[in-house]
Amino acid sequence: MDNDRERQKRSRIMASIHSRDTRPELIVRRYLFARGFRFRLAHPRLPGRPDIVLRKYRTAIFVNGCFWHGHDCKAFHLPKTNTDFWRRKIDRNRRRDVDVQRRLAEMGWHCLTVWECELAGEKRNQTLLSLEFTLNHIYLEDRKMRYSLPDDTPQMAAEQCPAQSFDTGRRSAGDDPPAQAGAEKP
Ligand SMILES: [Zn+2]
């Protein structure tokens, strides 16, 4: 039936648009994993289903394509045809990204965005190193904050998340060292 074929075609297109295994995301995942970070993918219970979630770091990482998320960079060009359609669509995506980040921040999550263009060519190594540095920095800063708070009330959001396989071992006083090369190998 024509309808079925149309539907199949549409769902194929949607699947490719929302593919979770896009190359930029794979680059980030492989790097983090090799450096000892453990994470969960496309967390369904956090706003915006972040691509990579590091619970131990209370950090959600979005790996964004420059076109779909309207990055202000050389890689982004509005198509010459149906320009208004694309502008509206991409504006909507941008607004949603901002909203998702605000909601995550309100829940006490750090939010990092890695752009596709930052993973291309020579920029890639620097981007990945910065990401690793930022994660370790977040970890240490969060521990500092915790010790200086009058009462150590856990944030609601963390408790609402089910136990994750990547968060191995129980932490009591937040005294784990930040991940390093070779750490947390299974
Ligand atoms: Zn870009």
Automatic annotation (TrEMBL):
GO terms for molecular function: endonuclease activity; hydrolase activity. Pfam families: Vsr. GO terms for biological process: mismatch repair. InterPro entries: DNA_mismatch_endonuc_vsr (IPR004603), Restrct_endonuc-II-like (IPR011335). Gene3D superfamilies: VSR Endonuclease. It comes from the Bacteria. CDD domains: Vsr (cd00221). Keywords: DNA damage, DNA repair, Endonuclease, Hydrolase, Nuclease. SUPFAM superfamilies: Restriction endonuclease-like. Residues 151-186 are annotated as: Disordered. Belongs to the Vsr family. NCBIfam families: vsr. This is DNA mismatch endonuclease Vsr. It comes from Marseilla massiliensis. The lineage of its organism: Bacteria, Pseudomonadati, Bacteroidota, Bacteroidia, Bacteroidales.
